[in-house]
Specification:
The chain is an alpha+beta fold. It is built from seven helices and 27 strands.
Length: 400
């Protein structure tokens, strides 16, 4: 839990590679909202050492809960929610050219030594399959997890459709998430990347929501972190874009941010990552090599051919994560439950993929059920998870 000590801390900042003029900075406060009005009133204490970021620079609040950081290029600012606190009115804010001040209201919570969280993926929400997301919510509400992680492909499609259809899916997803009793943390999948298959979407690259911008507009930062129960959780955007094609990648700007974020974490803290396209998977072997389709097995980017459906630069990402205790890497995308364990550099990491909420998958004569994974954390140790079936008839989407 974060404590405010009796002496003054200086705001600590890990600066981006290029300096930014201070005249464009945004400042604000992270404070305990005692009267729950969302406003930093006189007498409401600030929270020290809270990490604040614009998806590039990473700073911490001073002893009074104040921070200052550059405006950034993505149009969002967020806090890495500190252990022992919950956010009021969201952990992120949109910022414009005229934004000068952004405050974040938090309130203390008691975090138990043992807690559970859910990892779900690939809801592909649309009216036709809405009952599946609603079934996920019903089961999640009954299990009372501390929070729910959903690793991408939240909406039916934004890749290949125009703005009205894509926006409708995003809005439907937001309405359904607001009904969950537990907090829901999301990260984008390839189907959230708006309009890039331009020959199908007829969306211009100049569209204000093109590519990653639609996700940020509706869901906020497409990579970020938060803390709970002695564990540091990091959401990554593992969907790279090469002209009209998506592929697995964590880009250089995100890698730079990740290094700065991890530098703020106390050594020895367990780290859990969650992203859509997984770092590693055997799915390509199960499904077989695919050359001609909307999503072929291989892709060539800048003259280098690589597997498309795993993170092409996984080694770079994991080299940063192994500086901490990277215990669990959660992914989606393959529509099947998969558990891989690797031990390297004296760090044992579980690489787990969740099945698709949208429905079961068949491959190589095997049927992969629809469901999610429930993890239990005891004294900072994350277990191997327990599969929970969605329990729906795949023909009627009604409970079995």
């Amino acid at each position: 839990m974060t404590h405010v000590l009796g002496w003054v801390f200086l705001t600590f900042m890990i600066a981006p590679a290029t300096s930014v003029a201070q005249t464009g900075d945004i400042s604000g406060n992270v404070f305990v909202d005692s009267n729950h009005n969302g406003i930093a009133d006189r007498g409401e204490r600030g929270v020290a050492r809270v990490v604040v970021s614009n998806q590039d620079a990473v700073v911490t609040t001073d002893a009074f809960g104040s921070y200052r950081l550059p405006r950034g290029a993505t149009g969002v600012i967020f806090i890495s929610v500190p252990d022992g606190y919950q956010v009021k009115r969201g952990f992120w804010r949109s910022v414009s050219d005229t934004t000068r001040t952004v405050d974040f209201a938090v309130s203390p919570v008691t975090v138990p030594k043992t807690f559970a969280f859910i990892h779900a993926s690939d809801t592909h929400i649309a009216q036709a399959v809405l009952s599946r997301t609603q079934r996920l919510r019903a089961l999640a509400d009954s299990l009372t997890p501390a929070f729910v992680l959903i690793t991408g492909d939240l909406v039916r499609d934004a890749l290949r459709v125009g703005e009205p259809e894509a926006a409708g899916y995003y809005e439907l997803f937001a309405r359904e998430m607001a009904l969950f009793r537990s907090p829901v943390w999301t990260i984008p999948g390839n189907h959230e990347i708006f309009g890039i298959e331009r020959d199908r979407s007829n969306v211009a690259v100049t569209h204000p929501l093109y590519g990653r911008k639609m996700y940020r507009h509706y869901r906020g930062p497409d990579y970020y972190s938060f803390n709970y129960g002695g564990v540091h959780f990091v959401g990554l955007n593992s969907v790279g874009i090469d002209d009209k094609w998506y592929y697995g990648q964590v880009d250089s700007a995100q890698l730079a941010w990740l290094e700065r974020d991890l530098a703020m974490v106390r050594p020895g803290t367990p780290v859990v990552t969650f992203n859509h396209i997984p770092f590693f998977s055997s799915s390509e072997i199960l499904g077989g090599y695919v050359e001609e389709s909307l999503a072929p097995t291989l892709i060539t980017v800048n003259g280098k051919t690589t597997f498309r459906h795993v993170v092409s630069n996984a080694g770079e990402v994991l080299a940063l994560l192994r500086k901490q205790r990277h215990v669990l890497a959660l992914g989606g995308h393959i529509h099947a439950s998969e558990h891989i364990v690797y031990e390297a550099d004296k760090v044992r990491t579980m690489f787990h993929q969740a099945p698709a909420i949208v429905g079961p998958r068949s491959s190589s004569g095997m049927q992969f059920p629809s469901g999610f994974t429930l993890y239990t954390v005891r004294d900072g140790v994350v277990d191997g998870g327990r599969f929970v079936s969605l329990g729906l008839d795949p023909r009627t989407d009604t409970p079995l």
